[in-house]
Task: inverse folding
């Protein structure tokens, strides 16, 4: 089964705070994902996004006074509630407003992947790959997220998140 967390940068003024509309917007964006990914306005993580969040949680261990900006790249944002007439099959959705996007970008730009991996890597291994391969996979996700959030911040965009199953 394929399951993905889909991230889409978009101007906040273009977002309707309506689950049905936003689900349709994200479905269209998912259909165009390869082009939007290439353009730098979209990203996605396969079924390991929760483990990427665990990697970032290691920042809470490394920075005792951290205000938990590590929560922003994956689970940050406010949920968009289903309306009474929404299709229950629509994906869960979240919106991370531009300030949160900027905070996520700042966190990703300053955090050391190597330090995070030294704290959390042992529990993230075991996805059917050897240690070096697992490290490379998570490093790739980290680099992709750092670039995505950096571009979204530079454009002043919000980030909409959907989970497709």
Result:
């Amino acid at each position: 089964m394929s399951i993905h967390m889909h991230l889409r940068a978009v101007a906040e003024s273009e977002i309707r705070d309506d689950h049905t509309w936003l689900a349709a917007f994200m479905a269209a964006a998912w259909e165009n994902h390869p082009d939007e990914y290439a353009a730098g306005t979209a990203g996605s993580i396969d079924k390991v996004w929760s483990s990427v969040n665990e990697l970032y949680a290691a920042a809470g261990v490394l920075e005792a006074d951290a205000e938990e900006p590590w929560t922003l790249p994956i689970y940050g944002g406010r949920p968009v509630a289903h309306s009474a007439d929404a299709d229950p099959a629509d994906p869960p959705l979240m919106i991370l407003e531009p300030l949160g996007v900027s905070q996520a970008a700042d966190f990703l730009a300053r955090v050391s992947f190597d330090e995070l991996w030294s704290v959390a890597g042992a529990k993230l291994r075991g996805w059917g790959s050897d240690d070096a391969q697992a490290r490379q996979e998570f490093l790739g996700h980290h680099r992709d997220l750092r670039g995505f959030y950096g571009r979204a911040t530079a454009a002043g965009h919000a980030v909409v998140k959907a989970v497709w199953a």
In short: The mean pLDDT is 91.
